[in-house]
Design brief:
With about 230 residues, the chain is α/β, with parallel strands linked by helices. The chain is built from eleven helices and five strands.
C-alpha cells in the first residue's frame, strides 16, 4: 500500500479557514478545528504546514506551565526553548514577520485556559492568526471565556470520513476501484475513523495477496468488515 495524502472534505474545510485567516486580519483571528480522535486533524495540520512554509505548526509536549506553549512556538521559529516568558517573547519578536500566515496548535484540547489565553495574547500582540486543533473538550473550554470564544472567526467540525473519501483512498493507495456500495460499507465499518480506514485497507491488501485475487470484490469487503 502506498503512503498517500487524501484531500478529504474535512481537510478542504480546514484549508478554506486557514486561507481566509491568512489573507484577512480583522481582529477576530482565531479558529478552532474540532473532532473525535482518528478523523485526520493532525495529518491535516501537518499537511498545511508543509504546503504553506510560512505556517507554524506546534504540537506541545509539556502541558504543565503556560510558558511551555510559548517555548514550543519559540523553538519552531528560532530553534531555541527559552526558560522564561520574556525570553520567549523576545524570540517571537525577532522571528515572527507579517509573512507568517498562521500558528496551528495541535492537541489544544489538552491545554488549560491559561495556555489558551497565552495563545490569544500571541494572536493579539503579533497580529497573527492562531488555529486551535483538538478533540471535543476544546469547544467547552473555549466557551468558558468570552474573550476566547468571541475571537473565533470560524469553527471547523471534523466529521466522519465519508464513503467518497474511502473510495478515493483505495484508488490512490491500493490502485483499487471499489464500488460506491463497497465504499459505504467500509466507511460504516471504520465508524468515521481514518486510522481504521487505513487498517482495513491493509487487511484488504493482505487478503488479496493470500488469495491471489487482483481486485477487491464483495467477498473481500465482507472479510475485511468481519
Amino acid at each position: 500500500m502506498r503512503d498517500v495524502f487524501i484531500s478529504t472534505q474535512n481537510y478542504q474545510r480546514f484549508e478554506d479557514v486557514f486561507n481566509d485567516l491568512a489573507a484577512n486580519r480583522y481582529g477576530v483571528d482565531m479558529a478552532a478545528v474540532i473532532g473525535r480522535a482518528g478523523r485526520g486533524k493532525t495529518t491535516a495540520g501537518e499537511r498545511l504546514a508543509t504546503q504553506f512554509p510560512d505556517a507554524i505548526y506546534v504540537r506541545p509536549l509539556d502541558f504543565g506551565s503556560p510558558v511551555a506553549v510559548l517555548r514550543e512556538v519559540a523553538f519552531v521559529l528560532g530553534g531555541v526553548r527559552p526558560r522564561n516568558t520574556t525570553a520567549c517573547y523576545d524570540v517571537l519578536k525577532a522571528e515572527l514577520t507579517p509573512n507568517h500566515s498562521a500558528i496551528i496548535v495541535d492537541e489544544a484540547d489538552r491545554l488549560g485556559l491559561k495556555h489558551l489565553n497565552v495563545l490569544r495574547d500571541i494572536s493579539d500582540h503579533f497580529t497573527i492568526p492562531v488555529i486551535l486543533v483538538g478533540e471535543e473538550p476544546l469547544a467547552g473550554k473555549l466557551r468558558q471565556e468570552r474573550r476566547l470564544h468571541s475571537r473565533l472567526r470560524d469553527t471547523v467540525a471534523f466529521g466522519p470520513i465519508t464513503p467518497s473519501d474511502v473510495l478515493y483512498f483505495y484508488r490512490k493507495s491500493l490502485s483499487q476501484a471499489i464500488t460506491p456500495d463497497q465504499s459505504r460499507k467500509l466507511a460504516r465499518h471504520a465508524e468515521g475513523d481514518f486510522r481504521l480506514v487505513i487498517k482495513d485497507a491493509l487487511r484488504a491488501e493482505r487478503i488479496l495477496a493470500a488469495s491471489g485475487l487482483r481486485e477487491i470484490n464483495d467477498q473481500v469487503v465482507e472479510e475485511v468488515c468481519k
